Amino acid sequence: MSLKLSDADWGELWQEETKTIAQSDFSEQVCKFSGQIGKGSDRYVPLRNGLYLMMCDYELREDLTLDGYNGYTTYPSRLCVSFVIAGTVRTIHHGLTDYIFEVPGKNYIEFVPEGRETEDWSAGDRIIKIRVGITTEALRKMSHQSVATLPKELRLLVEEQELPPFYRLETTTPEMHMALQQILNCPYQGWTRQFYLESKALELLILWLTQASELDKTPKLCSLSHSDIDCLYRAKDLLTCNLRQPPSLLELARQVGLNDRKLKQGFRQVFGTTVFGYLHDRRMQQAQQLLMAGQMNVKETARLVGYASQSSFNAAFKKTFGVNPKALHRRR
């Protein structure tokens, strides 16, 4: 049975330990949490030019439903994009969204100044997120003459116009995924760490802004019903479960009850990528996880994720992550 908590209950159940780590001109702040419901940590990294990073890592000992209310803020002073690295949280902003699954390979941005939010967490599921933030003033200076190219929500933000509540869930691209892994595995300390993390935070923000702007320009290709969207999620699940021998487009469409045109157009519309683009991303993510865990060698990994040719796998992996799979495997 899931434990149901309010925001106040959540705060009372944690014991907090905060320490500051000096890094060049900036100081990182690390908050560690522990309690009867689990453990976790938040690492806040302030950077130059209005940027900051937040790295969150939580693991609960029992199923949890967190039910809370957002405080009212008429105008946000900063925006934040959250990238899901591990774990699954089911969330709903009541009156704004249906239930949404925040899962690895997804990122989201939200502005919900007032309203009720419910999150469901599962026992034993480790939740890791990287958040990249920038102040509104810094974004205004950065966009300068190019405000018109920003996603519509951010355009309203920098122009100081009324910003309606919104929640936006997008697919994390391989380029974003590479930058996220580089942040998690930053090899530097001191001032070099600060410059490195600043460059990666800015890279992530630019990649996200570029993707969001392009998606805004993409016309809606087809009208999707709730039933169609359910079919598309089943198609995604079928691909995830059959990385080694995925069905063809026509077979996949038949299995989920859509025609191939609606499958292709709807998949891009809902998940922000093509069917084969999603398949490729999932194969690469699973391969990276297997190699980093040292569970299999490169040949075995390539075969498990659906590559008959190891050379083709090596080329795809290096193009995605910037390193050869053998080099990643040797780090173990």
From TrEMBL:
<dbReference type="InterPro" id="IPR009057">
    <property type="entry name" value="Homeodomain-like_sf"/>
</dbReference>
<keyword id="KW-0805">Transcription regulation</keyword>
<dbReference type="InterPro" id="IPR018060">
    <property type="entry name" value="HTH_AraC"/>
</dbReference>
<keyword id="KW-0804">Transcription</keyword>
<dbReference type="InterPro" id="IPR018062">
    <property type="entry name" value="HTH_AraC-typ_CS"/>
</dbReference>
<feature type="domain" description="HTH araC/xylS-type">
    <location>
        <begin position="233"/>
        <end position="331"/>
    </location>
</feature>
<keyword id="KW-0238">DNA-binding</keyword>
<protein>
    <submittedName>
        <fullName>Helix-turn-helix transcriptional regulator</fullName>
    </submittedName>
</protein>
<dbReference type="InterPro" id="IPR053142">
    <property type="entry name" value="PchR_regulatory_protein"/>
</dbReference>
<dbReference type="Pfam" id="PF12833">
    <property type="entry name" value="HTH_18"/>
</dbReference>
